[in-house]
Amino acid sequence: MSAAMDTESTYSGYSHYSGHSKKAHRQGSRDRHKSPRSKDGSRSEKSVTIQTPPAEPLLGNDASRAEEGQDDNWGETTTAITGTSEHSISQEDIARISKDLEDSVGLDCKRYLGLTVAAVLGLLVFLTPIAFILLPQILWRDDLEPCGTVCEGLFISVAFKLLILLIGTWALFFRQPKADLPRVFVFRALLLVLIFLFVFSYWLFYGVRILDSKDTNYQGIVQYAVSLVDALLFIHYLAIVLLELRQLQPMFTVKVVRSTDGESRYYSLGHLSIQRAALVVLENYYRDFTVYNPALLTASKSRAAKHMAGLKVYNVDGNNASGQSRAMIAAAARRRDSSHNELYYEEADHERRVKKRRARLVVAVEEAFTHIKRLQAEEQQKAPGEMMDPREAAQAIFPSMARALQKYLRTTRQQQYHSMESILQHLSFCITNNMTPKAFLERYLNPGPTLQYDRDRWFSKQWTLVSEEAVTSGLQDGIVFVLKCLDFSLVVNVKKIPFIKLSEEFIDPKSHKFVLRLQSETSV
């Protein structure tokens, strides 16, 4: 048939095609036997080209067949839908990306500057008591009064206290940062300022009262250094209370809602700033929320577009556009009554297809694992050098389940999160640890949390915190802030946990006692 067609539908891989293909083939055969005069009269017809599916095995013996099978069946599943498939790039987006890069450079500089200041201040804190003790010994050693056993005991005390302070500081402060916050941590900055003022005041008093006068009471100088170490230990305790213990008691309940699909979770938080609460929300999001799948949102959009595409407005009298819009609104209102029936039958048909392909997948995987057990029994009878490793076993049984698994993933729109290589790795992992077919299928039958999938497919490198209040201010009742990434946003609503008044009611133990009296007329 020589007519030009507007769109050509091509089915490749293991895609399903129905009886319409046979009808198109018969129609094409009849058109080829028509006379040349029918060419002009068939301009409005459409032709459909249906390619035959490739060979059945996905994994061949040689590498070329393996790559060919992967391209035919799994290549499109990894690139068909991505996190940015619904977005276009414009000049404004390019400018915004360049601005984000500049901001990221500024954040790195700010982070390294803060680490440098903290490291210098920490080094000054640990060297100050040692300097207080050594400077008199270096500058006026001959004029010092003998101290004896008392000073030696104080030396041991200072050494152990500095060791305890060093371990506590390492455990509390020297930890790998989990995120770059937009503002400084207020309590940590206050502690650094407090430590600086405290050490500066000690050095000022030491320089005026000891260095200038060259005090000869060495025992008093050592005790002065011991008092500094004790005060530093108390500041460390204060840091533990402010940075760790204060936020442990739950004071607020936050509701986190994903803007695209409405999935929500509830979390309990303590006294935190808005930016640190946002960090806790993101940590829990990657663990608790199911992975964001934009393919699941295309069904409603395509349904709405289909309804609007079916409406046609004819401008007969040359009226303005407002009349056309009113006509379209009225037609949409009339079709709204029947749209729920279409939605019901579409969802019912989708659930039926999912259940059918799920059953096929479960049967295929069980048969494959049964084959593995049979192979393991056969391999035990062979020499140790001829044993099959889990990777080879996974490649041996994968073709028997690949088609059912691929159809199920396409039906449930999960194909972009599972490549052929990741499935083979998971299958070999299950074989290595002697896991059951149900354990293997758990990853594919139930959408898991975001951390379960490949990092390159879900991880958002930058989030934007939007809040009407200052991000360094603490949480309060009724505060709403938004965490935005490229594809969606998380809306966080903060509610304070109500004050609960619990009363006690005493029940007398004697009130539970009763007496059973039997009448004499009974037959018992």
Automatic annotation (TrEMBL):
Q: Name one GO cellular component term.
A: plasma membrane
**Which superkingdom is the protein from?**
Eukaryota
Q: How does it sit in the membrane?
A: Multi-pass membrane protein
What are the transmembrane regions?
112-134, 154-173, 185-205, 225-245
Q: Which Pfam families match?
A: Strabismus (PF06638)
Basic and acidic residues bias spans:
37-46
Q: Spell out the subcellular localization from the entry.
A: Cell membrane
Q: Keywords for this entry? A: Cell membrane, Membrane, Transmembrane, Transmembrane helix
Composition-biased stretches, type Polar residues, lie in 75-87
- Where does the record place the region Disordered? 1-87
Name the residue ranges with Basic residues bias.
19-36
Could you say which protein family the record assigns here?
Belongs to the Vang family.
Return the PANTHER family for the record.
VANG-LIKE PROTEIN
Name-wise, this protein is VANG1 protein
State the organism named in the record: Dryoscopus gambensis
The root-end lineage is:
Eukaryota, Metazoa, Chordata, Craniata, Vertebrata
